[in-house]
Amino acid sequence: MFGVLLASYVVNAMDRQLFPLLAPEIRRQYGFSLAGIGLLSTIFTLGMAVAGVPTGYLLARFSRKTVLQAGIALFSIGTALTVLAGGFADMLVYRAATGVGEAMELTVLLAIAANYFVGHRAAALGSVNFSFGVGAIVSPVLGGALLSAYRTWQVPMIVFAALGFVAMAVIAVGVRVWLTEHRSAGSVQADRAGASTLLNRNTILLTVMSLIGGLVIYGYLGMYPTFLREALEYPATTAGTVVSMYGLGALASIGGGWIGDRFSPRVVLGASFFGAAVLGYLLFHGSHAVVSQALLSFAWGVVVSGIIYVNLAGYHVKALRTSLASRASGVFVTTLYGSAAIAGSLMGWIVTHAGWTTAGMIQISLLSLVGGVLAIALRPDEMSV
Fold this sequence. Notes:
By secondary structure, the chain is mainly alpha-helical. Helices cover 81% and strands 0% of the residues. The chain is built from 17 helices and no strands. Helix 1 (2-30) packs across helix 10 (201-231), helix 5 (64-82) runs antiparallel to helix 6 (88-116) and helix 10 packs antiparallel against helix 14 (290-318). The longest helix has 31 residues, at 201-231.
């Protein structure tokens, strides 16, 4: 049953990777600017950033299964309505709505994983991001194939929206409430280290790093497929294959979390941010060969999704006492996805004024270097065990 729930998140994750792949066709039809299409590619993250409070309100009044189903429905409806958009404004609303739906589903999935698999929480939570990686692999390949076969960007969007409704039906029939509504009754453990307030050195540093992480990760996710299609002139299917390698790299998230639990955050985040700076440079300055770009995309997925994303979330929690864990997670989601909402637009603006190589240098490499420097200033001894 948990596998069914993870499969529904695979469908959700597929939409994240689809829209950027279809961006050139959408630009031609509507005449959007590069900065505009970049904003449309990443605006769903704004929906994710602001959905925390409404989701908490709903969970206090309805079952997890009901809220999860509502999130999938909202995500699928927003995806379907995108093909009916009359212009930029209403398409922006539809894309943001998909983010709200995704945040609802993700919040519930994390709650189910943490409460049911009490003895294996790290693996269960890591499996959620693992399922995102699966969706990131499937989406560009399937989306590119549908686009090549039907020669219209609307068909992949409709197909992916329909898959969401199929997932709702399978969950309704195949997932029981004793799994989704399970509440662990484990003993309350005393706080061990960690700050007693959000205003502490580690949380402040991690907050800035999360803002940087959102700009870096979603600068890539929002605009890299467009770079492949328009700058390197890759066909849709080829670009889809290259981008899907990012999802393959994201499958390393369980191992990335394991590394974060066993080594200093200075080492883990510092090395991974510096690694992202190098990879970002090579993505936009290196070889244009398909194999080279595919390998770089895979490595990027390992570093930024499998290590940086997972451990920014984990270290936010460890920076505070265990009683403040939910607040720590809230800070992470709000800051990372809040900055991610403008990542595509910012990168598109830089590209318009200075070109792709400069945009990659500034938004990917330079910001990653800043993140690596900030990681060195963390104080692991003040984090909870």
